[in-house]
Specification:
With 225 residues, the chain is an alpha/beta fold. The protein is built from eight helices and five strands. It binds zinc ion.
Length: 225
């Protein structure tokens, strides 16, 4: 078995990578980091550091052009501000639609690209870090269990039953992800989650708040702070 891990430099994908390393071993894991026109390069830098930490190959891909025209607030082309409240607060204003930091069908695109790269590199499984907190309330619908199952079917059938996807945390909370990462000794000190590209994490965007809560629930300080 050989795994391709979608690595974004954050907590969830780094834990996925740690899990794939445990299951398949260093020589059977490759990482893929995709830039999508986000406002900063911090997460790409973290993905590089994490891949380097594990001593595995990292492939990088730039898909920024795909998102030209999107008003997603994470993207360089957007004039909108990144919200400084929790996802739960944001969802009160979205009328059932995803939050403003939802990048249009990002996981669908990333998994499709990953499938082509995985098949070209003899991988049988793709790991990615979707978890239940992100799909709650439809904040990020491309992190949901239904989406994951549908994409898995599409990739399994479309690859001639050679490749499947695995989202080990799709039914788990971010606190569960951190708990698993602690067990795996994931290099959280190298990760970056904040949507802003400051010197330090802003501490008040949706993902900073989520991250802080996950570490607090595990009773340990965030090693990246
Ligand atoms: Zn932040």
């Amino acid at each position: 078995m050989k795994a391709l891990v979608l690595a974004s430099g954050g907590i969830d994908s780094t834990t996925c990578l740690a899990l794939a390393m445990e299951r398949y071993g260093k020589e059977n894991v490759i990482a893929l980091s995709i830039s999508y026109g986000q406002k900063h390069t911090k997460e790409m830098e973290s993905a590089r550091k994490v891949a380097e930490y594990y001593g595995i190959p990292l492939r990088e891909l730039d898909l920024a052009e795909i998102f030209i025209g999107s008003d997603c607030t994470l993207l360089q082309g957007s004039s909108g501000e990144i919200p400084k409240t929790s996802y739960a607060e944001q969802l009160k204003e979205t009328d059932g639609k995803p939050v403003s930091t939802y990048v249009p069908f990002r996981n669908g695109l990333f998994l499709s690209c990953s499938a082509s790269i995985a098949l070209s590199n003899d991988c049988n499984v793709i790991y990615y870090g979707a978890h239940a907190d992100d799909s709650a309330g439809n904040a990020y619908p491309d992190c949901s269990q239904a989406f994951n199952e549908a994409m898995n079917s599409a990739i399994f059938i479309g690859s001639g039953e050679q490749l499947r996807i695995e989202a080990p945390f799709v039914a788990k909370t971010k606190a569960d992800v951190v708990r698993e990462g602690i067990r795996l000794k994931a290099p959280y000190h190298l990760t970056w989650s904040c949507y802003e590209g400051g010197e330090k994490p802003c501490g008040c965007c949706g993902t900073c708040l989520d991250r802080a809560k996950a570490f607090a629930e595990n009773g340990i300080p965030d090693p990246a702070l």
